Amino acid sequence: MGLQLVGELLEPASRADPYPIYARLRALGPVWIEPMRTVVVTGYRDCERLLRDPRLSAERQHTGSTSHEDLYPPDAPSSVRQRWFLSQDPPDHTRLRRLVSSAFTARTVARMEPSITRLVDQCLDRAGDTFDVLSDFAHPLPVMVICRMLGVPLADEPLFRRWSAQLTRLLDGFSADGGEDEEWLAGMVEMHRYVNDLVAGRRARPRSEDLISDLIAAEDGGDQLSHDELVATVVLLLVAGHETTVNLIANGVLALLRHPGQFAALRADPGLAPAVVEEVLRHDPPVQLTARVASQAMTIGEVHVPAGDMVILLLAAANRDPDANPDPDRFDPHRAQVRHLGLGQGAHYCLGAPLARLEGRVALARFAQRVRGAELVADPPPYREHINLRGVSELLIAKVH
After folding, report:
1. Most CB atoms within 10 A, among 5, 105, 163, 166?
2. Are 68 and 323 a contacting pair, CB within 8 Å?
3. Per-residue pLDDT for 177 more than 60?
4. Is residue 159 pLDDT above 50, yes or no?
5. By percentage, how much of the chain surpasses pLDDT 70?
6. Where is this region: Disordered (predicted)?
């Protein structure tokens, strides 16, 4: 039964609404999928506990790992082989995250709010009577925000949008195949070359209120990021932060349009935006799952997991566990308590959470205030093939006069 349900999840027809399948998987408890040598975990309590369990390793196949080294051309920058701290375990992860966190502070994020508000309004100013929320709003906004934080020239922002699109399949982890190696490898090498030059320029001429300059200056007990670590971190901030925030905004708009009462409430009171964002992260999260490797033999529920085998935590299923959130399939920003794993837990809790929340809050509040009388052209909208970073491929709305 578990294998059959996982197979259903992989079907393109399931993208629009995987949640009934998640519910059926959750009823089984932790389930072993023999052909995949994987245990799939769906309950909130189990997922929350396992995200903090040191026996589960984040060091699996990922961007920049040694498994990809053979694929890069000989003249590729050495930084492409630097592993992202997202896919490292302590103590390496602890060291890198501490250094990056010292530059990517709440103050750094908060100072972006006026700029984010202006960018949101610029996107909405261009909206016509028929408006694709994805391509005209949710997709360009996060790239513009992070490029301004990094000090990327405006003329170069389209490059970052293209690179992010090329690398999203790889980050998803469930939709890339060998036939697409050439595309993402080219994007990865081009992006690393660009960021190497960008970092070299900042070393020569540091700027104030510039994230790259802050990362160069970041220090902890005399320790600093190496050049390759810094370049890989900048690439990670863009790629990991872009697609997830795109889906947060688009999923939020979709939920509001499907629930006109909640849409009207947000329009009347923009102060509800933080609660709306948290409910989107619970109800339809941008990241549907995360994968770990058992570093030693362990038991999850009634399943024995040998060392070296995979553990998939279905975060989106856990968020709709009725033991964590009553009436879990209902979209309700007015819940007395919202429990979700949309940003992870434990050591790998999302470093960009404050920025994602800020972008989501501003984008959804301004959308509610400025877009009136809109309705979905198609419901459900079409979805991309991604399983983990699940999101719409188009979200057309029409303004009703």
Report:
1. 163
2. no
3. no
4. yes
5. 94
6. 56-76
Q: Please indicate, yes or no, whether the overall pTM of this predicted structure exceeds 0.70.
A: yes
Rounded to 5 degrees, φ, ψ at 60 are -115, -175
Q: What is the pLDDT of residue 221?
A: 82
The domains of the chain, with CATH numbers, are: 2-72+87-399 (1.10.630.10)
Phi, psi of 294 (to 5 degrees): -70, 115
Q: Nearest CA to 256 among 244, 268, 245?
A: 268
Cα 389 to the center of its chain, rounded Å: 7
Query: Which residues face 220 on adjacent strands?
Result: 223
CA 284-288-291 angle, 5° bins? 160
**Of 354, 353, 281, 349, nearest in space to 319 by CA:** 281
76 dihedral zone (left: phi>0; alpha: psi -120 to 50; beta): beta
Q: Residue 351: left if φ>0, alpha if ψ -120 to 50, beta else—which one?
A: alpha
3-state class (DSSP) for residue 39: strand
Residue linked to tokens 């349900």? 5
Q: Find the helix or strand (DSSP H, E) in which 311 lies.
A: strand 310-313
